[in-house]
Amino acid sequence: MSAIFKMELMNNAQDRGLYFWTFLLPIIFMVLFISIFSSGTMADQKDEVILSIVPGYTVMFVFFIMISMCFSFNKDKNNGMIARLASTPLPSSSYLIGKWLSFMIIVMIQILVLFIFGKVVYNIPLEQPFFLSLLSIILTISITGMGLALSLIVRTQNMGIAITQVVTFGGAIIGGLWVPLELMPNNIQKIGKLTPQFWAHDAFMQSMTGTLSFTSFLASSLILLGFGGIGFLIAWVSYPNFLKRAKN
Amino acid sequence: MLSIKHLRKSYGATNALKNISIDFNEGSCFGLIGPNGAGKSTLMKILVGIIERDEGIIKSKHTKKEIGYVPQELCLEENVSALQNLLFFGKLYHLKGTALKKRAEEVLDSVGLTERKKDKVKTFSGGMKRRLNIGCALMNNPRLIIMDEPTVGIDPQSRQFILKMVEQMKKENRTIIYSTHYIEEAEKVCDEVAFIDKGEIVQQDSIEDLLRNHAIPSIYFKLQEPYEKQLDIHTFGDVEAYKNGYMLSTKNPMLTMENMLQISKEKKVIFEHFELMQPRLEDVFFKITGTELRA
């Protein structure tokens, strides 16, 4: 498992596209939209914009890891690597766990970098670092769980890109990452609360300002873990079929 | 030490393997020869344990740890170095530390990539990638090596290098199962071959015996132009037109050649070309299966 984990990390470290999607593009979006939404506003309004946009775009862009996951699993499937690995003593579960852990690390680094950027450039508050850290880990588990499910289900990389974009942008819009949920129609607000993006964003904002209660933390965490859990369940059910397709 | 009996595998309505039985001899190279889609890769994947058989018995003393599998595809990580690829595969066989590094250096040497070990695989030529692909399968120092078309799409120099590697493996008393549709490769490195076509073993024997029992030598000849019109060509026997000349198959080539020379003397005709053609395994394959290997 550690061999798979390290090889995946090495591979991703060589992927310039991943750096762009993971770090550069979210930073560009943050800077751009903070400057747009805060121009001509008072200082406290600007702080509110920053408080929403930094965690909002962090949550939005971590979803793009699902594309990298789809690419990675599909590449292994198509170039015969999975079949070859099956000829070695490596258990098939180790392959899955090794790959998953490497993407966990990437997402955690991504969240860390984006929050450090927010702190250094916009001096965002980080009042409840313990909750923030736990939420980051839980969000990572949730997204990589969903990514795992998607990677094992889709037949082509393009299918993975399309679904990820629908989930990412759709969730971002109705989950209140772009426009505060309060400003949206009631029906949209109700739907928005069904998205993992809303719960992650809301919990991040509250823990940044130090207003996240343990109950709220627990609720957000359980909902996020629920999404991740469904992802893992789908992945677990789909994995034998994925392996079968890859080996033949 | 490795034998398969009555092996069957189907994909839906397609019978990929139909009642395959083979005994593989230890320390020898066994060739699986057949056109694309004959079932070679399916058989190899079953032998390595990648896919399950539907029916049949496999008796083997080798565990996965003792088998090296060279797939037809280039299963390499292109963004990392040759050395890192080998270390990766070594770790999958639980090699660690100094033993792992030592084995990787040995394998790099045997596949002739020591000089390029730190270069990324994506900068390699097709032949170098093929050699590394084989190297990855040697990391566990396997006693049984299963090679699925290891020379597909490479230059003649790299092909020769790989065939020499196979010869070396034979000298090290490793058992090799080698699939190919390049029959001349099998003639060079294999001790015994099986012709596989449409999922069935249609013939299995040593190359020597296959040639002896199934190949008929031929005499290729061409008459000088003015004489060709003067003589009924069938005076020489049951000839067939072949490459601007004629081909005459015979079980007794020496006697036939003597007769032909005698006839030419009597009829006063002169040969432009007169040659005894050695029988080829490819002809045997065609004779038995009625299929061209590289059709």
Describe the protein's architecture and organization:
- By secondary structure, chain A is mainly alpha-helical.
- Chain A has one domain.
- Helices cover 82% and strands 0% of the residues of chain A.
- Chain A contains 11 helices and no strands.
- Chain A has helices at 2-13, 16-38, 43-62, 65-78, 81-86, 92-122, 129-153, 157-174, 186-192, 196-209, 214-247.
- The radius of gyration of chain A is 19 Å and the shape is elongated.
- Chain A starts with a helix and ends with a helix.
- Chain B starts with a strand and ends in a 6-residue tail after the last helix.
- The longest helix of chain B is centred in the middle third of the chain and has 16 residues, at 156-171.
- In chain B, strand 6, helix 5 (156-171) and strand 7 (175-180) form a beta-alpha-beta unit.
- Chain B is of the alpha/beta class and 295 residues long.
- In chain B, the strands form 3 sheets. In chain B, strands 5-6-7-3-8-9 form a 6-stranded mixed beta sheet, with helices on both faces. A 4-stranded antiparallel beta sheet of chain B has the order 11-12-10-13.
- Chain B is elongated.
- In chain B, 36% of the residues lie in helices and 27% in strands.
- The chains are: A mainly alpha (248), B alpha/beta (295).
- Chain A binds chain B through residues 2-3, 6-7, 10-11, 14-15, 79-81, 83-90, 247-248, and chain B through 11, 45, 48-51, 63-65, 67, 69, 71-75, 77, 79-80, 84, 88-89, 91-94.
Write the layout of secondary structure elements.
The complex is a heterodimer of chains A (248) and B (295).
Chain A: H1 2-13, H2 16-38, H3 43-62, H4 65-78, H5 81-86, H6 92-122, H7 129-153, H8 157-174, H9 186-192, H10 196-209, H11 214-247
Helix pairs in contact in A: 1-6, 2-3, 2-6, 3-6, 3-8, 3-10, 4-7, 4-8, 6-7, 7-10, 7-11, 10-11
Chain B: E1 2-11, E2 14-24, E3 29-33, H1 40-48, E4 55-60, E5 67-70, H2 82-92, H3 97-110, H4 126-138, E6 144-148, H5 156-171, E7 175-180, H6 183-189, E8 192-197, E9 200-206, H7 207-214, E10 218-223, H8 225-228, E11 240-242, E12 245-249, H9 253-267, E13 271-277, H10 281-289
Parallel strand pairs in B: 3-7, 3-8, 5-6, 6-7
Antiparallel strand pairs in B: 1-2, 1-4, 8-9, 10-12, 10-13, 11-12
